[in-house]
Amino acid sequence: MSASETTAQPTVDPSVGEVAAVEPESQEAAQEEAPAQFEVTLLLPTQSFVNLSHISPQPRQPNADGFLELPIPVTPTDAVQELRNLITESPEGFWLGAFGFVPVEAEEIVGEEKEGEEKSYGPWVDMTPPVQDPKSTIVDPSMWKLTADGVLGDFCELSAVFGSGEVENKKRGLKVVLTSFSPLATSLHLLRFRDTLFGSLPSQSANASYDPASIGISSGATLYTSVRGAAPAGDVAAPEEEAEVKGKKSKALKKPEAPISAPTEPETESAPKENAKHPFSDWSISDLSPFSYLEHLRPATTPALASPCIKALGISAWSPPPHPRRMRGDIVYLTLTTLEGESYQVTAAATGFWIAKSTPTTFDPTARTPTPRGLRPTPYHSLFELSCALSPSFSKALVKIIETQNPAPQVSTDIYATLAISHAIPASSWLVPAPVHVSDPFRTQLAYLLTTSTNADLLPPARDWNDEFCQYRDLPQGTMSERLLRERLLHRVQCDFVQAGTRGAVSIARGDVPPLNPNEPVEAHTFIHNNMLFTRADDAIKAFAHLGGNDAARVAASKDLQGVNVLEQLDIKGLSTMASVVVDYLGERWVAQSLIPGLFKTTEEDKEAKEAESKPAVVYPEGDEAAAAAALKAAEEDKAFPSMETPNRDDYPSSGAFRIVYGSGNPEEPDEKIRSSAYFAALAKSVAEKVNFAEHKVIASDGKVTELWTSTDMHGIAAPDGRSYFIDCFRLHCTDIEFLENNVSGATFTDASDKTVNGVHTPPAYPHRLALLRPELLEAYRDSKLEKWIEVRVKEHRAQLEEQEKAAASVESELKEAATDSTSPAEKAKAEPAIIQASEFKLAFNPDAFVERKPLEDGKAAVLIYDPEEESTKAVRDASVYLREKVLPEFIVMVISAVVAITDGQFLAKLLHRRGINIRYLGMLADIAERQGPTLEYPRGTSKPDIEFGLASLKSTLQHAMVVRACKHILNRLLRKSLTADHASLIAHFFNCLVGTSLEPNPSPELVGLPAGANAQRAWASLTPSTLRSQIVEEVEARYRYTIPTSFFNPVTLVPTRLVREICMRVGIQLVLREYKFGSRVAVEANGNGAGSSSEEEKIQASPSPVVNELKKKKKKSPAQLEREAAKADENRTVTFRAEDVLNVMPVIKASVHKSQLAEETFAAGTAALDKGSFELGQEMVQDALNFYEQVFGSVHQEAASRFHTLGIMYHNLAQGALRRVQTHETAEDQLKSMTPEARVEGAKRLQEYLLENPDAQRAEADNFLQSAVRMLRQSVIIAERTFGLDSPEAIQHYSDLGLLEQAVGNSDTGMRLTKHALSLWASAYGPDHPSSLNLLSNVASMVQTQYGVVASIPLLIECWKLAKVIYGDSSLQAASLEYQMAQVYGLTGKFAESIAHGTAALTLFRTLYDPETKELQEAEQFLAVVTDAAGREDREAAERAERLQKKFPKLMADKDIRARIGAASTHSHRTPASASAPSPAPVEDVPVVVKKDYGQKANLSVDELVSFIQGTPVASSSKAARKQRKN
Prior knowledge:
Helices cover 44% and strands 9% of the residues. The longest helix has 37 residues, at 1198-1234. The radius of gyration is 38 Å and the shape is globular. The two termini are 53 Å apart. The N terminus and C terminus are likely disordered.
């Protein structure tokens, strides 16, 4: 390429609207300085009623005033409330009741301290509040004052008291002072008392083991600590770090970052133990059971049914206090029963707690006299202290409880297992232990305790959700702190709204809330609960009758939520939305929305509003005649005021009726009135430009044409609160016209002539016609067109440049140019390259294109509201074609070539949605994979066997996803029409018909008895396995246009646990934790009808995969395990599922996803800085981003898990890069040392770029990065389990990655345990025959080889080989490679017979898979020849030795036993020491273990090194010490 061509290349400018990358420098400049930390001493009063000095990590003695001094780091922005929470959660201050803080200070005593001793300070003195000017009206943040109790207010910031930090020669402190009780302080103290004592009962935190009022059972659980076992070295949190995370979760940067310690080196052993045990000892592929991880789900101990301190505690029946006693300070009355069996009535008043004279029948709340058990007559300030004085047993048990709640030291990552999930819905598993329900009086009394309300009328008013959302969106975003505050408030109100909406939908579905319109049909019922609007996603007003009725309405509700999510992410200034959440519960879909002011207007209000709009006198701004005339004209034309002619914002009335100002004026008849307010059109244009919508013409039923930016079905609302809203956002998606025209009805994608599957019947039509394209697809199609447009512009520019060069070559042009300017046009073109503006590219879509309207009442065709000739309309069809012809085949190629590990249907849905593919295309994808898959263009290097295997696996996964979704729809329909009492029996019977036919071919339902005369319809009871399969086939044909083959339901190939798991997750079912029996596969294969016999093989439970068709080995189990299994086993069980196995049905929640743009920008900038090598800046920015994530989303959230995992992988990559630089440096050093002194100078110049100035610093840096990576992944595993799910794809991936990293830092056994758990999760989520299982098992073999030697890894290599044959086939490349690897390992251990056998088998397969010139084939042939020669040489030497012994000792050699022993000894003497480095799977006669120093190091050698080793030549060591030894 010439110089002119290289300099004239055009550059592409990013299009408008794309997010630009944030440079670290600019981001650093924009960041505000983090507030400096300083130390404050907390002075806590001591207590003497219980001894807890041994619990505190650093026991302290009280000072002269009797206070404990606890120094803690704080920042000026900390509030007093945060320190209060920290104290009540500590062992020193848990007992405190009502208290406050008084600021104190102590002067330094100068001259008394000695060298090496701490500074001395004088007594603590109360600080005096600054004097404030009573006439001043300006609030000074630096001024502080004390409350009436003489303490600081709860929300007073420390900056107001102590300024910005330390003061020279002074020590700052906060003294805890006991204050009088308020109702709120009393409630908080009682809750703290309950949570402390009733630790085994459901607490009020999000980590409760079981709460009957919770949405799910065992929500937010984690198995990490159980799976990991003992904590690895270096993962113990310092006491101050633990206190910081527990007490001040929202302040992540309060403590200076501690330097990362170097990894702990694994202990070096001289040789592995012969019988060394590791987590994979005696492991086989038969252990890949889908229930193998259940042992971690079972609780280690049974929760106690009562507190170990007291028998009962509750609100007394005498509460609330009467008015006279309220005037005396009484707040609440309690009933306390001690372990000694004595019951007391306790009065909680403003002055404290005392034992009252009241009895269950007599009311007298005054103090009892004489006091029982020698209590003091004055009130107790703490209920803990009063209880200890009442009951000696209370004091003893309290110490044990505090010990368990404050373990020391605690593993740092384990803290995330106990933090509350405050701003997210915790994940719940589909298999959970049966909850232990216990008596707890506080459970039903909490509402009174928290609100002091005794009936619903006295409850506090519900939150105004809509106003909160709108106010938070209107907050300023000028500074970083303002952006952070806005994002945090928006996310938290969103989480509160989702939780409230979910609970409200469940309550309404159960019948707890009456409808507003009980006389209307059930599907039209509307509910107002907790200031939210609840409706069913049904077609109550027949708006979707022409599109599919209720099915279309359900889709519209989901698409509306997606549209709201898009608008919230766009964050258009001045535009609001209705907060929405979709809840699927017991077969019904509920929509919860915030209430827009004026939404429920009466007919009279409509009339008055219409009359007001027609009056020309109501004009804004006042006195504007032009606006008045425009308003009158708008009223005459039946337009909403303001009209297009009055575009000013002031034209909106300050208050008015709820009205539609944009889009269809009548939602029930969308073609009658089309409105387009000028102001709202500007908002709609802002939205359209972001989502690539075009301004298009819409034709009303009367022929009037209106131009809109969005669909007519999206309604712009002018609300009485003066805000503008977009509602009904389901049309923020374009119509998939190709699917509507080609696939809604007619034949399926599969061959309809297959009579054995499809028969002669006509497949049912698609359930609805509301088929829409995803926004991701429109964006992908636009990007593809943009790329082509840029290519055309580049060609045009090059052609133009060539013409300029030709013109400049003429003689006349050169002379003229020389006379005017020395620079030629060609040179100018080279110096100034053309810039292609991507913003010049125009491609937009018509959201109203191909939208179908209702047919007219007179039978005429529906109105065509769009112009078919518009370019935006044609673009919609082109995008629909692009999806079918381009995106679907590319998705298949991507999955096959990238070897994407598709775990389950949810992960598959995420992949599809990211590529813009709708779920309805599952059938077409399966058909393309089957028919066109082998002919698609794959990247170079993708082998034909890999393509065939990938296509078969993908097709199976797609079929499985279709069946799961069909089962979901069928089960939801059954639940929707069944009685509440039948739900458990229905679900159990459904699963028995689906996957339990091997155990019982004809399952019978468990029917619950009904009252006499009840006429309940139980259509579900007539369900049979055959009818269920017919319904599934029909449902798949209708929804996915695909015919499921009958072989799919073959019990031999079906994975029942995988099917049951996904159905449970999609419907919200929770089953009891146990190992379900699906029948014997041996019996199924032998009999074909699922009926079992009494043979031993059929009694063994079959695993749901061909991997474990061999019988399981009987393993010895512990007595405790046998006892648990015996207690839960039911030998008389004739069906797989019973009604008692169904514990709960949870709501399935769909809500908009809030993103923190500030945190994402900072995290992206930090990771970019790390990639560029700016480690200090990058780590600081990443830490800031994690702090932002924590402040916005909380400590435990899905975003935190994803970021920790991403950062851990990045740190690992940085560590690998540093290690590679060190290795390159060592290689360069060795080359220099091997040179002559004369050549060393020239070599140093040549190798200068590979040499490091400080290689030790690089090693330390690599160690730091590796330890940081491990720490990040440990945290991500726990958070992923609690937020994504115990067996979610994210949790599996994090466990797999952490297992490798633990092994990298020397924790091999921990890494193997984590990897073993990941294997179990794969078996549960997918089945044991997934390719990822083989990869994980190969990693484990490498771990075992590294830690325990080559021979110890042989059993696992054999299992890998077996698994590869099951997954890929006996003749696959994977099986051949593992066969060859086993040949190498056996060759290293001196077992030449086994090595030759495996090598011959591998060579045979290689010859069928590789060309003769392939390197792999030649190496295999060379290796086999060397091993064969070595085996022959060994045999010859053994024969020669035997011959010599025969000649020398003929009588001795005549004995057969002696001759055999000498032969065996001879064989062992010729084998390498590696053969004795670990136990062999096929043991021979015992021989002493030969100690070697380099065990486990030769399985990764090259072929040449292996050959040299087998032939007897020493293998060159690669270690630095060995190289030095050779040179010396």
